[in-house]
Amino acid sequence: MLSRTILVAAIAGALLAPTVVAADPIEFDFYGSLRLQYEAVDPDGASSYTGFRDAYSRIGFNASAPLADGVDAFAQLELPLNLAIGEVTIPDDHTEDLRIARIGLNTDFGTFIYGQDWMPYYNAITFPIDMFSTYYSGFGTFTAFRMSDSVIYYSPDFNGLSFGASFSDKGGFDDDRYQLTASYRFGDTVLSAGLDDVGGAENWRFYGLSAMHTLGNLYLGAKFEWIDSDQDAAGFGRDGDTAINVYAGYTMGQNVIKAMVAEVDGFGGTIFHLGIDHNYTDRLTFFAEYYNEDEGAAIPTLKARDANPVDAFGEGGDVFALGARYSF
């Protein structure tokens, strides 16, 4: 398995190599997004609490340079900034200190990526409903968002049809992980199908379907996932379990009103998620959300400063959150 130190060195090498053969200089784009919420949480089976929680702050850079006609090299490094506890960690697992570290090539034959990046199955199946602004966005799925030590491929667009594939070394609980996706865009609609073969002792495979549609100021997203596994016991990953999500967002001037209802077997149960974003400027957004789940998934039993969420797994509950996001 390639270490993070070697991967970062590879990113630097990929950026420096094109300067030898390319007439154009390397282009750098530095960016960041500071996201913090204040929440009132009433977890089932535990005491209620209030406090700050990070909502996926990050800082990073993109870089690109031409290698040859029709071939561009690129690299991206993105670190999490957990503003609620003052550390470089992602907010849902304080042991993780890296969001994206990737190198790749854009070519006429598609895009090739190596490293840690957003995965094809997430992009095709989960992204259409992952539209909220708080920490509680995106939990209503079976898959992982980003995986390290991954080789990823995205095809060109063939009259609206495109494909994705990936291999992740030890990405499936000490087993190799494979993903395949296909998407078809026509007009303002995108339909996608995907497979996430996790493997592992229970031989998990996630199958997914999704749809995205834009109608003026109205955006609609939906997904369906189904688990095929050798696991018979109740809990996350049981054979035959499903996840169904329906999302709607409506833009009114500087405001976006959001709503989602979901039924996720073994990870959240029945979920209701409501929110509103106010885009005060192009860079600054204020948001307010309500989140409810009747099984353990997203809601920790302790505030961010008191425990790592993976060590404070709850039984469901309610959350009200107010926050702001500043991007640069």
Structure commentary:
7% of the residues lie in helices and 53% in strands. Residues 18-22 have low confidence and may be disordered. It has 328 residues and is mostly beta strands. The chain has helices at residues 4-16, 18-21, 120-126; strands at residues 27-43, 49-54, 58-68, 71-80, 100-107, 110-118, 146-154, 161-168, 177-186, 189-199, 204-215, 218-228, 242-252, 255-264, 269-279, 284-293, 317-327.
CATH third-level topology: Porin
Count of separate structural domains: 1
**Percentage of residues assigned to helices:** under 10%
Q: Number of DSSP helices?
A: 3
CATH homologous superfamily descriptor? Porin
Which class in CATH terms? Mainly Beta
Structural class: mainly beta
Could you give the topology of this structure?
Elements: H1 4-16, H2 18-21, E1 27-43, E2 49-54, E3 58-68, E4 71-80, E5 100-107, E6 110-118, H3 120-126, E7 146-154, E8 161-168, E9 177-186, E10 189-199, E11 204-215, E12 218-228, E13 242-252, E14 255-264, E15 269-279, E16 284-293, E17 317-327
Antiparallel strand pairs: 1-2, 1-3, 1-17, 3-4, 4-5, 5-6, 6-7, 7-8, 8-9, 9-10, 10-11, 11-12, 12-13, 13-14, 14-15, 15-16, 16-17
Give the structure's gist in a few sentences:
The chain is mainly beta and 328 residues long.
